[in-house]
Write a structure and sequence with these properties.
Shape: globular
Largest sheet: 7 strands, parallel
Number of domains: 1
CATH superfamily: NAD(P)-binding Rossmann-like Domain
CATH architecture: 3-Layer(aba) Sandwich
Number of helices: 10
Helix content: 40-55%
Radius of gyration: 18 Å
Strand order of the largest sheet: 3-2-1-4-5-6-9
CATH topology: Rossmann fold
Number of strands: 9
CATH class: Alpha Beta
């Protein structure tokens, strides 16, 4: 029997790396996408030991049209994508009036634009085949505004809203869309975002990326539309629904800083 193929962006580390492993462990071949080909080759070697065929495509999805080029390469290799995992993304902490504008533009390109393009180009064939799954890695941040990380939180709000809307559009097909919303997770994210000392990671419970990946995989295979990782994050999301928005914004800003 032919193994289904999953394409995972941001597959060289963190949640993306663990999702690639979980998919391979559960009978999928994997297309690994990230910027660094050396690291991807290492991951591919690891997955081969699990019986998976891993295809490596190095791509910098912060570059305009990189997602289109990626899909063209997938087509050139005659790979039919059964599962799309839009995981790649990064954040940046600091006052909006001081943070680097180009880095924030790159963030929107990666967290939002590339996700739109990959979903648009790969979901249409899924609908034609009447099978497929999409897992978009959003965040607990998508449920609230995030002072001092305003752009990042806004991108994740987009991912969450878009995922739920697309899931509703596709409900009569056999293509499912799931938004995975992790809270603080032990990955390299905080280093890239320059928030190693933030109160968020000091005060909030954190999960391993492996556990988050397993939660996301199970939810995707069940066809769930939204899943939060961990009881504390579920409780937080529910409390946000009834809390005054100004209070939520103030608390979020407090947690995103280190002093």
């Amino acid at each position: 029997m032919t193994r289904p193929i999953a394409l995972v962006t941001g597959a060289s580390s963190g949640i993306g790396l663990d999702l690639a492993h979980v998919l391979a462990e559960n009978g999928h071949d994997v297309v690994l996408v990230a910027r660094t080909v050396t690291k991807l080759n290492e991951v591919a070697s690891e997955l081969s030991k699990l019986g998976a065929t891993a295809h490596v495509i190095a791509s910098d999805l912060t570059r305009p049209n990189a997602a289109v080029d990626l899909v063209n390469e997938v087509k050139r290799r005659s790979l039919d994508i059964d599962v799309l995992v839009n995981n790649a993304g990064f954040g940046l902490v600091g006052p909006f009036v001081e943070t680097d504008m180009q880095r924030e533009v790159d963030m929107v390109q990666l967290n939002v634009v590339a996700l739109i393009q990959l979903t648009k180009l790969l979901v249409a064939p899924m609908v034609m085949r009447n099978r497929g799954r999409v897992l978009n890695v959003a965040s607990l941040a998508g449920f609230l505004p995030g002072p001092y990380m305003a752009i990042y939180y806004a991108t994740k709000a987009f991912v969450l809203s878009f995922s739920e809307a697309l899931a509703e559009e596709l409900k009569k097909s056999k293509v499912t869309v799931t938004a995975l919303c992790p809270g603080p997770t032990r990955t390299q994210f905080q280093d890239v975002a320059e928030m190693q000392g933030s109160r968020l990671f000091k005060l909030m419970p954190t999960l391993s990326s492996r556990r988050v990946a397993k939660i996301g995989y199970r939810a995707m295979m069940s066809g769930d539309r939204v899943v939060l990782s961990g009881f504390a994050n579920k409780l937080t999301a529910q409390s946000l629904r009834i809390s005054p928005r100004r209070v939520v914004s103030a608390l979020s800003g407090f947690l995103n800083l280190d002093k």
